[in-house]
Design goal:
Helices cover 55% and strands 0% of the residues. It is an all-alpha fold. It has one domain: Ankyrin repeat-containing domain (Serine Threonine Protein Phosphatase 5, Tetratricopeptide repeat, Alpha Horseshoe), CATH 1.25.40. Helix 6 runs antiparallel to helix 7. The relative contact order is 0.11.
């Protein structure tokens, strides 16, 4: 298959399927209703019950039907106090759920900076390879234009040049899955300033500069050219 056709197929696939928010599976109403024990306590942010249950022998990393731990549930429901308590009691801050998401990526996709900081402070790693796309929280955040999340992950040592299984870096995703607006520009700018490689091309051989020019993203083009992009 010619490279241009391959590239077009990959782009169509990514635009349809590579949405981290869509790929993630938060608990639905029926699951919340069925939760007991630590999952239920995490969902309602009940740190007191969490501590009591764990001290009475509950498995702190017990899984639900989608392999979510109570900590995953706390992250999805933005229950910061529950997440803090779970990690303090030994919950695995880097556990992956059934869709291969950790709490760092869950918080990043939700643009939940407080939960992200809680996750990182509790031992979550910005270096984890997550999602069905073999990506990172940084790639997901750049794709979605979550600029403060991007800056937080960079400060936490996220890999700047990781390439996911679509052939894209965080820098590329900020362009090809972005809208060229203020927040996506801020993501790209933060990545460039942090030292991301501005010349890693996609699978078709198109560089970030080429991709930005194709889309008419003039601010991104200017940032890339100033950084020596080709």
């Amino acid at each position: 298959m010619p490279k241009p056709i391959v590239a077009a197929c990959l782009t169509a696939l990514a635009l349809t399927l590579s949405l981290p928010a869509a790929a993630q599976t938060p608990p639905d109403a029926s699951e919340f209703a069925a939760y007991t024990g630590l999952h239920a306590a995490a969902a309602r942010g009940d740190a007191v019950s969490i501590e009591r249950l764990v001290k009475n022998g509950a498995d702190i990393d017990v899984r639900d039907g989608n392999r979510r731990t109570p900590l995953h549930v706390a992250a999805f429901t933005k229950q910061d106090a529950a997440a803090v308590k779970l990690m303090a009691l030994g919950a695995d801050a880097n556990a992956l759920d059934g869709q291969r998401y950790d709490i760092v990526t869950i918080a990043s996709v939700a643009d939940d900076v407080p939960m992200l900081r809680t996750a990182l402070k509790g031992g979550g790693k910005a270096t984890n390879i997550t999602s069905p796309y073999d990506g990172t929280a940084l790639i997901a955040a750049a794709h979605l234009g979550h600029d403060e999340v991007v800056r937080t992950l960079i400060a936490a040592g996220a890999p700047l040049d990781h390439v996911n299984n679509l052939g894209w870096t965080a820098l590329i995703e900020s362009i090809v899955l972005g809208d060229g607006g203020k927040r996506h520009v801020a993501c790209l700018d933060a990545l460039v300033k942090a030292g991301a490689n501005v010349n890693i091309a996609d699978r078709s051989g198109a560089t970030p500069l080429t991709l930005a020019k194709r889309r008419g993203y003039t601010e991104m083009v200017a940032i890339l050219e100033k950084a020596g992009a080709r």
